[in-house]
Amino acid sequence: MTDHPLVGIIMGSASDWETMRHAADMLAELGVPHESKVISAHRTPQRLYDYAMQAEIRGLKVIIAGAGGAAHLPGMTASMTHLPVLGVPVESKALKGMDSLLSIVQMPGGVPVGTLAIGKPGAKNAGLLAAAILATHDALLAERLKKWRAAQTEAVAINPE
Ligand code: RP5
């Protein structure tokens, strides 16, 4: 799904895809056009600058940024665009994602990043949250989102076995 993406999913390394694919899967399930790119704040700073500065003019409405360790990607992206940036702390080997979480969540006042949970749940919820943001101006998407939530509720059995 790459035609006129509304959500840009970016990640610091291809190794983050195993986590970030859950954001992409969620958006695909809800029919939200999106794109996924590897952009590193440290290894490809020019790519980050170009992406963040062009995001609005390209028609993106929300950016989901995932990174691990010294996870500066979401914050640096947010510093260069007024679009909502959702940050996903990728689970790191050394510190289990606590480093990623703290790097992403502790933004200075004035440059917000909406920080999600560490790992897969955070990526999945970033997809849902991006869809919820878009759904405030898209009645059909709002209906799909409500149906998805209702189906989730329906799937929870009352008996544990
Ligand atoms: C971060 O370093 C990336 O977001 C990734 O989570 C982590 C490790 O990257 P690789 O060494 O696997 O490329 O920048």
From TrEMBL:
Q: Which HAMAP family match?
A: PurE_classI
Q: InterPro entries from the entry? A: PurE_ClassI, PurE_dom, PurE_prokaryotes
Looking up SUPFAM superfamilies in the UniProt record yields: N5-CAIR mutase (phosphoribosylaminoimidazole carboxylase, PurE)
GO MF annotation list: 5-(carboxyamino)imidazole ribonucleotide mutase activity; phosphoribosylaminoimidazole carboxylase activity
Write down the species: Sphingomonas oligophenolica
- Look at the named UniProt entry and state the broad enzyme category this protein falls under: isomerase
**Annotated EC:** 5.4.99.18
Task: Tell whether Ribosomal protein is among the UniProt keywords.
Answer: no
Q: Which UniProt keywords apply?
A: Isomerase, Lyase, Purine biosynthesis
The protein in question is named: N5-carboxyaminoimidazole ribonucleotide mutase
- Catalyzed reaction equations: 5-carboxyamino-1-(5-phospho-D-ribosyl)imidazole + H(+) = 5-amino-1-(5-phospho-D-ribosyl)imidazole-4-carboxylate
> Is Kinase there in the keyword field?
no
Give the residues the record marks as binding substrate: 13, 16, 43
Q: Which domain of life is it from?
A: Bacteria
Q: Write down the PANTHER family for this protein, in alphabetical order.
A: PHOSPHORIBOSYLAMINOIMIDAZOLE CARBOXYLASE (PTHR23046:SF2), PHOSPHORIBOSYLAMINOIMIDAZOLE CARBOXYLASE CATALYTIC SUBUNIT (PTHR23046)
Q: Which Gene3D superfamilies match?
A: 3.40.50.1970
Free-text function comment from the UniProt entry? Catalyzes the conversion of N5-carboxyaminoimidazole ribonucleotide (N5-CAIR) to 4-carboxy-5-aminoimidazole ribonucleotide (CAIR).
Domain PurE positions: 5-156
Listed pathway(s): Purine metabolism; IMP biosynthesis via de novo pathway; 5-amino-1-(5-phospho-D-ribosyl)imidazole-4-carboxylate from 5-amino-1-(5-phospho-D-ribosyl)imidazole (N5-CAIR route): step 2/2
Entry's family note: Belongs to the AIR carboxylase family. Class I subfamily.
